[in-house]
Design brief:
Blueprint lengths: L6 H26 L3 H18 L7 E2 L2 H14 L1 H20 L11 H19 L8 H20 L5 H16 L6 H4 L18 H33 L5 H17 L6 E2 L1 H9 L5 H22 L4 H15 L2 H6 L5 H17 L2 H20 L3 E6 L5 E9 L4 H5 L10 E11 L2 H16 L3 E5 L3 H10 L5 E2 L1
Parallel strand pairs: 4-5, 5-6, 6-7
Antiparallel strand pairs: 1-2, 3-4
Helix pairs in contact: 1-2, 1-3, 1-11, 1-12, 1-13, 2-10, 2-12, 3-4, 3-9, 4-9, 4-10, 5-13, 5-15, 5-16, 6-7, 6-13, 7-13, 9-10, 9-11, 15-16
Length: 477
Amino acid sequence: MGWFSNVRADVLAGVTVALALIPEAIAFSIIAGVDPMVGLYASFCMAVTIAFVGGRPAMISAATGAMALLMVTLVKEHGLEYLFAATILTGILQFLMGVCKIGRLMTFVPHSVVIGFVNALAILIFMAQLPHFVEASWVMYVMLAGTLAIIYLLPRLTKAVPSALVAIIVMTVIAMLAGLDLRTVGDMGEITRALPLFHAPSVPLTLETLWIILPYSFPLALVGILESLMTAAILDEMTDTRSSKNREVKGQGIANVVTGFFGGMAGCAMIGQSVINVKSGGRGRLSTLVAGVFLLFLILVLGDVVKQIPMAALVGVMVMVSIGTFDWQSIRDIRKIPLGDAAVMITTVIIVVATHDLAKGVIAGVILSALIFGWRMSRLSSTSYVSETGEKVYVISGQLFFGTMSHFVEQFTITDDPEQVIIDFSRSHVWDHSAVTAISKVILKYRQMDKHVVITGLNEESKRLIDRIGISAPSSH
């Protein structure tokens, strides 16, 4: 789709997203323990850059909760300049992953891991709000309840404007008029009405710096790619279009490098904002560009108003984001889905919540899924009968690979079998070198007892593999 084939809808969708981005960008900055401007600049840089270099039109990339959670320790222990350096390194790693076509690997992430990932992200976002309730007054709780009421009730009356934005505006106006003693965004950090400027991170260019930032940049790169590709897949489905996954991975890398040099924190695609964009009519790259540019306009022109936003309203928005992100259907379905898939989902959630590292949870989930899949695949059986001409026929059922080779060898009663034996592979598939070795072993044992083996029923792929490796068979057809 071209840049200007859907102008009106793209512009309106972009404006809607920009308005909804402000509270999230600030809230994610606060999670990471940095100035609100770091998240706002990141969201502007990410959105504008990805509009040109991304692989999925209409997808919104900005500062995100998943990425913010990974930065907390780095910011605490080493400070902001190291975060900028880590953001640039994250981008470089992502670009290299795109060159290596890692986008293809994401098709190996099972659905149960994706659900676990999304649910863990929701729990972490919710947990990150809890410190705001420490020593909070009753006014905070009333403001929070009011925020959530507007967020959930307003869409029943109108969907013309994002209800989260209306909630923030209403709560800010009430707090200002009533002169309520509440923590505001201004208390969290200064919002400066200034353009983001080019700034190389002032960190020493040494190996020591690399070892400090690499343990943060690598998980950031992985999580950014994971979340971006999962979001791209959701939008592909919603809009019934296809996107270039490897171009998206490289685009995320370029966007993070740009962001790191313009005073922003690492970001990635946002599931919530991208869905808002598409549901508001955004279909082209223009919607993403407008979201970024309009966000900067809001910072520069309305910066003083943004400072007055009460924290209670932002906490309300983040609670809404966590409730909306959580896949509640997965809890209802947990009894229906296979036990292995349920275990993978729960394991992913537990590891992510325990370590605050989405990448560790996803990698553990994928490994566990692979082990369960291997276990299911390693069921091999055989039936045998004696034909009218006196030959013993073994019919093998199941996959023959390294995990089933010893089981395969155990299927045969070599000493009791007649001189002519047929092994029928029409219900099986020969996968690897181990499988061919197992067949050779069986044939060799029969041959040592002067018995003749014929192999039948091999499919084309299995036949090619056996021909290539070679088998110590007297005859096969």
